[in-house]
Amino acid sequence: MNKSKIEGEADIHISKQSKSIIYSVLEHENCENQRIPINPNVLTFRDSVLEYRYSLSLLCQKGNNQDKSKEFKNNLLMFYIFLTSYIVITITTSLLLYNEGNQKDELLITRLIILGVILFLGYSIAYLIFKSNKFLMKSKELFVVLSFALISYLVICDERVLSAIFSKDYEKNSQNHTLILACFLVMIRIVVFDSFFLFVVLTTLTLTSSIALLLALSTLSPFAILSDYLVLFIFLLLQTIDCHQVEYRARQLFWRREQEEEALDPMASQGEESDKAYAQINTEVELLLQACDKIKQNIKQAAAVIMYKDVKTKLKTAQTEIEKVKRGIAHGLAMHDVKLDGNGELDEDDKVFISEYCMDKISSDKARGRHQTMGDVREISPSFPFSTYGVAELDSVLFSVGKNWNFDIWFVYQVTGHSIFIVGKYLFEKWSLSTTFSIPEDTVDRFFQTLEKNYHQNPYHNACHAADVLHTLLYFLSTSDVIKNLNPIDIISLIVACLGHDVGHPALTNRFLINNRDELAFQYNDNSVLENMHIAKTYSIMNKQGCNIFENLDADDWSKSRKLIIQMILETDMMKHFEILGRFRARAVNLADLALENQDDKILILSMGLKCADIGHSSKILELHEKWTSLVCEEFFRQGDLEKQRKQQVSMYCDRDTTEVPKSQSGFIKNICMPLYEVWCSYLNNEEINKVCLEQLKKNLSFWDEKVKVRRSTALNVDNSVSANGNDKK
Ligand code: AMP
Ligand code: ZN
């Protein structure tokens, strides 16, 4: 008994060995079995757009919908050679027979008329297909009509049917059409790209109509008729099975190719690539990610055709590894992100020591217990101090802070003389932040009032801009439910970040300050000069006696909040725009792995939110957008005036005498706002935001583009009339 068991084990061992030596050959269908959204009965894609794209891929060349595909042209050529030869031969034979007196008048005329009509119909279809894309896409249906006509002719003009109809004997002079029917059905199969559904319909129609006609009319024995058609039936049955397999495989291949393209370019799959009116500007990181995607795709394609199991396994592992490399790149090659968790040499105390002294890290929520999220917080309707202004509309206007995309901060400013103070106080009351963080009421008042006072009365970079940016960010967060994943610390920090993000702005750009060797540029070593100054100023205001709203925060919350505020404000530096956009796109689109539960990701998302809110006026209703635009332009022009005064080169779009505002705005929206908003809105994935925000952005772009056009055509007319006048004078 023992012996046999041992022998058994040895057998298993040998068979395992031989398997690995011989290599098991995998069947394609088994290893690539994918679920495709196909209706198996009629072999069509369930999604009509996909179905349309499939037809397009068969009929047209890839990437060029105007040119017919090579395969389609070849199929057409074969079909028309066959059709023309058959008709020409039949007509010639009939004429020869007629000349010899073997063909009856009525038969010759019937044949000539029907074949003439079919030939005309066939060539009309070819003409229409080549003339218009609309008919090209309907080519299957057109060929069905043609086939219907030809099949009817072949069935009715079969010698046996004609003999029965005219009670005459045509047997000596005309053809039995069984063979030609089989050939013709095969040709039809080719020209409709093995469409299983059409082939089944045409085959069934042909067989039933001809058998029924013959059985009903012919005097031949039913057995003779059926045995004749039995061969045709078996041939067509085999053709039908083959047709199903070919079409299924073609659709499966098409689906796989679509999936691969989608994986390589997720934006294109949303149909967004084609109508983009701006150049995509990518960072090095994004290009590396795209290269990784291409490598992964190539490996995947190679794996699909490799038949050796162990090579296939290695290629699959390579795909996983590439995915890891991608993550590493997208997370910033994380040189500083030292992994302590998997290190068995370190005990918990060592880890805390290293993270506190050697790493830019603060302890996580998990370590200190979970904070409340804003989803748990009950909103209340604030009453003070807004009722003191005696303006009934103010309440409802403030109610729309963060709720109505087109909230008008200027109204609040006009009736109260304040912006930051009113909006900040309103939100603190709404979310009971003073109670949550034990902040005395007068500290809150003093902080917001001092912050507001520290904004200069600039055309654009003033306290109203800061309050408006806060409203815009809150709209994004609360409309998309992101707010439900934020805790009160995040909320109070983002309020401070938004309201302080431009404090003390001198109405001059970073470039101006750096080029003019300004004291501020020296202080911050030319690096995000203004943004560093805004952060420092916000904190120094908070440090003033009676202004410290963060006084009662514990050390962990304070550091967390500070990290968030610093990064949010630093990322409003437009000089780093493409770097920041590229990093966010890499995470939100290429990897799609952003998680609000992760503190670093949360900072990334909120910073991007503030960055978008900062230029939010570009997607507000035209009335607001135009107002903010004229203010920002006025501020640019004042800098230009200063540059002229100092005899310096005037910065782009800062010369009030030469700047074409519509052109500058069209460029700003097209190249800066649109790519940013598309990525941000696709991350938020909310219909309302897409509607109010993206659509308005496009409307505003058309508004400026229209102005550019009008201006150009007016300039052209003026030029023409000047040159015409010149010619007249000559
Ligand atoms: P911030 O200075 O933080 O408000 O950053 C936003 C920047 O976007 C501004 O400094 C401007 O340079 C720029 N910006 C905003 N609106 C416009 C506009 N309509 N045209 C051109 N640049 C704009
Ligand atoms: Zn700003």
Automatic annotation (TrEMBL):
Q: How is the cofactor bound?
A: Binds 2 divalent metal cations per subunit. Site 1 may preferentially bind zinc ions, while site 2 has a preference for magnesium and/or manganese ions.
Report whether Transmembrane shows up as a keyword of the record: yes
Q: What's an example of a GO molecular-function annotation for this chain?
A: metal ion binding
Tell me where in this chain the PDEase domain is found. 377-711
| Coiled-coil parts of chain | 278-328
What the entry lists under Gene3D superfamilies is as follows: 3'5'-cyclic nucleotide phosphodiesterase, catalytic domain
UniProt protein name: Phosphodiesterase
